[in-house]
Amino acid sequence: MKKTIIKIIQVLFVIILLVFAVNALSWPSAEQEQPAIPETAAQPEDAGNPDSNENREDLTAEILKEQVLDQILSYHPGTAGSSLQAASAAASVLSFASEYHVHLLDADTMKNLLTEAFSSLDSDEQGYFPENLEGVAYLVNQALEDYSSVEGQFADAGADTAMEVVRLNPDAAADWHSLEEILLAM
Asked: Residue 49 domain-assigned?
């Protein structure tokens, strides 16, 4: 009986070693090339060049609705998965603000365009917009102040790569705060 138990333990030990060996072979090595940033998460070529007007000239109320308001409205607080959806929305809105260099845009023009975009929302959307904005603003502000405190939430939402790219932009905080100020005043 004792020999049988010893044989079982030996077999289990060999199986465990084999599992570790197989897993070790599938782990990426430090020498392997790191995956490229997906095209959808990459910064535009002019993201570091605030003098580029390419994106700013094309800004319309429709673009603001699709890329800012609809993103903020894309989740419903308190429902299953809402924290991940909020993280995804926060990453999208911050990416937009950074891509368009919002802090360099005329505040009155932005306010007028956002007001026009907001007026195109139905009354229900307008009603729950403030609560959604609060959740998105909290995540963006946390990410800009102490990314490690919300990094897991962005990673779980699949938005960590986009956040890392945007956070490389030295004007990201200024871009976000300019947009946030207008959104909060609506």
From this structure: no
SS3 content of the chain, % helix, strand, coil (to 5): 70, 0, 30
Residues 171, 186: Cα–Cα separation, whole Å: 23
User: Which of 82, 184, 62, 181 is closest to 133 using CA atoms?
Assistant: 184
Specify the number of domains making up the chain.
1
Q: From its phi and psi, is residue 81 left (phi > 0), alpha (psi between -120 and 50) or beta?
A: left
Q: What is the pLDDT of residues 106-129, one digit of tens each?
A: 999 999 999 999 999 999 999 999
Residue 30 falls inside a structural domain: no
> Does residue 10 form part of some domain?
no
Give pLDDT tens digits for 8-66.
Answer: 777 665 676 555 555 555 544 434 443 333 333 333 444 444 444 444 568 999 999 99
DSSP string across 14-36: HHHHHHHHHHHHHSPPTTSPPPP
User: Does any domain span residue 27?
Assistant: no
Q: What is the DSSP string of 139-186?
A: HHHHHHH-GGGTHHHHHHTT-HHHHHHHHTSTTHHHHHHHHHHHHHT-
